[in-house]
Design brief:
Layout lengths: L1 E6 L2 H17 L2 E6 L5 E3 L2 E3 L1 H10 L17 H8 L11 H15 L4 H12 L4 E4 L6 E7 L7 H7 L8 E5 H7 L6 E7 L10 H6 L3 E4 L4 H9 L4 H7 L4 E4 L2 E2 L2 E2 L4 H8 L5 H8 L10 E4 L12 E4 L7 H14 L1
Parallel strand pairs: 1-2, 1-9, 2-5, 9-10, 10-13, 13-14
Antiparallel strand pairs: 3-4, 6-7, 6-8, 11-12
Helix pairs in contact: 1-2, 1-13, 4-5
Bound molecules: guanosine-5'-diphosphate and calcium ion.
């Protein structure tokens, strides 16, 4: 059996622990197609937050408390950068984490594509699943916000290549929106810069085309899963592919389990509920993505047109509980 998982960072990583556990039980192969919309260059370093969350979590090196970055992290470099007044200062950059970014940046600067770099980094971490970036190309999530808010950090705004327009709006990089402003700033919409010309990373379409099951992790639908699906050809491959597609709701009882998906959904005008996210993805038979949608027991009775909905426990408290979610997804198909 071959399983493909569309995933963001922390929610995707936790879910993949359960997918890996299930796969070991039944002898399945797992490919994770991971969001790169959060990626950015800072201080000359290429940072891929979602790929790293997945890699560290599956490799046993993640900080379980903080949810992102390395366990036993140090912050000397961050403090030293701040002492120079080197902007931006709001982005968490740990010492151990920086080693990952150094290796990655050196390889990218030498001409290796991101999927090859990701594979090289994974030889250390042995995540037990195949990790693929959704694309090797630049695809950055930007938030279009009201220009009344403070000016963007030059370091990030410049790398983004976007600026104020004459409607009093400006684009800021997703990380600035999320980390610096805590998603609490008047926001009009999101754009995926570079999406039009991005190509699926080598292996992505093949994995989807030969999968027996595609799972949409309980990741943020707006800023984790949507940028994966924004890579031209990727959504189409999933929607037209041979494998059933089952999504897992990141929203339980009308609220995200953690994070700020509620703020992201509000920008789209989508109700923050298991039904709202299910309808946002849509049923495959109705031109959308899903055949099945797992919601939490609290959300039993959720209806999504053309989608088989089942209510099961959806809290990823440990690997066994998460593997049970995966089993429920398999049984739904
Ligand atoms: P990020 O890229 O690090 O923000 O992480 P993701 O986008 O992959 O995942 C974030 C989403 O995971 C949030 O919207 C949470 O609601 C969801 N999430 C976190 N823990 C759980 C859980 O235990 N169960 C479910 N169903 N969703 C969860
Ligand atoms: Ca993310």
């Amino acid at each position: 059996m071959r399983i493909v998982v569309l995933a963001g960072g922390i929610g995707g990583a936790r879910f993949l622990l359960g997918v890996r556990a299930y796969a070991r039980e039944v002898g399945a192969e797992v490919t994770a197609v991971v969001n790169v919309g959060d990626d950015l260059w800072l201080h000359g370093l290429k940072i891929c937050p979602d790929l790293d969350s997945v890699m560290y979590t599956l490799g046993g090196g993640a900080d379980p408390e903080r949810g992102w970055g390395r366990v036993g992290e140090g912050w000397t470099v961050k403090e030293e950068l701040a002492a120079y007044g080197a902007e931006p200062t709001w982005f968490g950059l740990g010492d151990k984490d920086i080693a990952t970014h150094l290796v990655r940046s050196t390889m990218l600067n030498a001409g290796y594509p991101l999927h090859a770099v990701t594979e090289a980094l994974a030889t250390r971490w042995q995540p037990g699943v195949r990790l693929l970036p959704a694309t090797d190309d630049r695809l950055e999530t930007h938030a279009i916000v009201s220009a009344r808010s403070e000016p963007a950090s030059p370091a990030v705004a410049n790398s983004a290549g976007t600026a104020d327009d004459d409607k009093g709006q400006r684009a800021i990089h997703f990380q600035e929106w999320w980390v610096r402003y805590r998603a609490d700033i008047p926001t009009h919409r999101f754009v995926f810069v570079g999406a039009e010309t991005a190509k699926p990373a080598p292996g992505v379409l093949e994995a989807i085309g030969t999968a027996d099951l595609v799972l949409v992790a309980p990741s943020n639908p707006v800023v984790s899963v949507a940028p994966v699906l924004a890579v031209p050809g990727l959504r189409e491959a999933v929607a037209a592919g041979p494998a059933p597609v089952v999504g897992i709701s990141p929203i339980i009882g009308g609220a995200p389990v953690r994070g700020m998906a509620d703020r992201c959904l509000a920008v789209l005008g989508v109700e923050c509920s298991a039904a709202g996210v299910g309808r946002l993805y849509g049923g495959r038979a109705a031109g959308g993505l899903l055949d099945g949608w797992l919601v939490a027991e609290e959300d039993a009775g959720t209806l999504v047109p053309e989608v088989t909905v089942r209510a099961v426990p959806l809290r990823m408290t440990d690997e066994a509980a998460t593997a049970a979610m995966v089993r429920a997804a398999v049984e739904l198909t």
